[in-house]
Amino acid sequence: MLKDLLSTITDVAFLRDLFISLGLIIFLLFMHSMVRRAILRRSKLQPEDKRRLMVYSRNASLILFVLGTVVIWGHEIEAFAVSLVAIAAAIVIGTKEIIMCILGSIYRTTSRAFEVGDRIEVGQIRGRVIDMNLLNTTLIESSAALPNKGTVGRGVVIPNSMFLSTPVYNETMLGAYVLQSIHIALNRGEDWHLAEAALLQAGAAVIEEYAADLAMHVRELERNYAVDTPPTEPRVRISLDDREAVNLHLQLPVPLGQRARIEQRVLREYLAALPAAGVIPANTGKEEPVAGKPRVTPR
């Protein structure tokens, strides 16, 4: 057996393939390093664009390495594969999860479900995509990922096999704006007309800051996707799910990544406008001081 091993190592074809493989690895590492350095030096690119390009460069190098290895070692791989026919089933069972992850990566790439920098939700996990490879996808957990919690900021690694069985919600597929809902609960005796006016005023003041960019975004949606465009001004819906409360639901377009900040700003401006608007509880017939402000229950 040792003699066969020595004859294989000293075989000219084997040594040729070995040196070609080493040359391919060195070349790919050098090219990946140069491309990475060029991307990092581009000061005009946004951090997300740099991260996306580096992920694409790394994955392209990996694909070229796999293809080159198959081409270089084709005859040896073919002979080795024939000898593994008897245990092929066992290998498939043992590597089922890895195969599922690779298939999930292929599904993600071909369906263009999301890219680096997109905000997605998979199951109970929500965050911004910062890295992708053949086996897993890495997210940075975003704000509002859990009820009543602010920005979490934890890194979450998801196996790509999840994409084959779990729906993926891409919040950035149609651009950089989403509709944010802010919920306010009022007692039935309170003047909801004035509360609605205060909510609309607070929402309009926020939208005014990015109205021009929002209008451009809406035109791009109409031109590229042929979909019904979202409203560009705040709207209030009313629901009476609770017999003792009037629920106001403010909907307004907000930039991604600023939803929590804008929600807090709208709520603060709304609360500040309540005394000026005169929103007070109706007289209940009891000799008690007036409360002055309704219940605010962000959801």
From TrEMBL:
InterPro entries: LSM_dom_sf (IPR010920), MscS_beta-dom_sf (IPR023408), MscS_channel_2nd (IPR006685)
Pfam families registered for this protein in UniProt: MS_channel_2nd
PANTHER family associated with the record: MECHANOSENSITIVE ION CHANNEL PROTEIN 1, MITOCHONDRIAL-RELATED (PTHR30566:SF5), YNAI-RELATED MECHANOSENSITIVE ION CHANNEL (PTHR30566)
Transmembrane segments: 12-32, 53-73, 79-103
The protein's name: Membrane protein
Keyword terms: Membrane, Transmembrane, Transmembrane helix
Location within or outside the cell: Membrane
Protein species of origin: Silvimonas iriomotensis
Annotated Mechanosensitive ion channel MscS domain residues: 98-170
Lineage: Bacteria, Pseudomonadati, Pseudomonadota, Betaproteobacteria, Neisseriales
